[in-house]
Amino acid sequence: MTDSYPAAIIPMFSLTVAISAIILSWIISSLLDHTDQLWPFVSFLQLFVPEGQVSTWQSLLCITFGTLSLWLWCSMAQHELKEKSAPQTAYLLVAIIRILVVATGYFQLLLFSVNSADNNQTHYNSTVRMFLSVKLILVTQIILSVRFLQLTRLHTAARIILLTQSSCGMMIFYYYNLVGNKSYNGEYPYRRAPGRAYYPYMYCAIGEWMMVSAFLVFTLLQALELRHFEIRLPEVVPINLSEQTITLTFERP
User: Fold this and answer.
1) Residue 235 counted as domain residue
2) Membrane-crossing residues (predicted)?
3) Does 253 map to a domain?
């Protein structure tokens, strides 16, 4: 006997936790005037107490189930490749995606374990590397779906749109982060960016939101593609010790 569960429940849970963490942290941060209410940095939502603790713990759940969701997608792809007797090149692409999934999870963990107020450079580098890993996953999935998998054109087009959106968001984030730091004499404003540094940081926040929203839609896309699959877990059966006998024999030397 095995217990089966819908595979789509994993990415949907990750998506629900991520959205609730952002909304709850945004509300708390806005009420306490910890960040700009209209254009907040997503990174700013974990700077202060109490929203920082809420965002961090929920983000850890999102990382765990998000990584598992991508891993399940690879298992789904591998199952379909076996049915089609695909060449080894296709399996190599799946293996590359699995490596990128592990890298994405690692950079996410590093991202949320380092406060940008304490070490902004590490936080910034982790953000860039994490979203770069996601973009590489999107590129590999596009190649895999076009060449080997039977995904719909809509799903492939959605990946191309998400790749374009996240790439534009990263360029905006990178450029205006540099401009903002120069405008603020190299210091990192934790609350509202005053004066001439406000607009560069506002555009930088827009770039970050473009990347985050693309990642959320990407998680939703995984749920849609996993909806026809299920996870089967083996049943756990207790051991009946009374039926087990252990025979020990001793021989004289």
Assistant:
1) yes
2) 7-28, 57-77, 89-110, 130-148, 160-178, 198-221
3) no
User: Angle formed by the axes of helices 198-225 and 153-183, to 10°?
Assistant: 160
Which of the pair, 126 or 179, is modelled with greater confidence? 126
Nearest to 43 by CA among 167, 151, 193: 193
Is residue 184 within 8 A of residue 202, CB to CB? The reply is no
- Which helix (H) or strand (E) segment holds residue 233: the answer is strand 230-234
2: helix, coil or strand? strand
The whole-angstrom distance between residue 36's C-alpha and the CA centroid of its chain comes to: 25
Q: Quick check: 108 and 63 in contact, CB under 8 A? A: yes
Tens-digit pLDDT profile for residues 3-34: 788 899 999 999 999 999 888 888 888 888 77
Is residue 249 one of the residues assigned to a domain?
A: no
At residue 190, the pLDDT reads: 45
% of the chain at pLDDT higher than 70: 82
Number of domains in the chain: 1
15 and 217 Cβ atoms separated by less than 8 Å: no
Cα–Cα dist 48/18, whole Å: 18
Take residue 71 and report the two structure tokens written for it.
């891993």
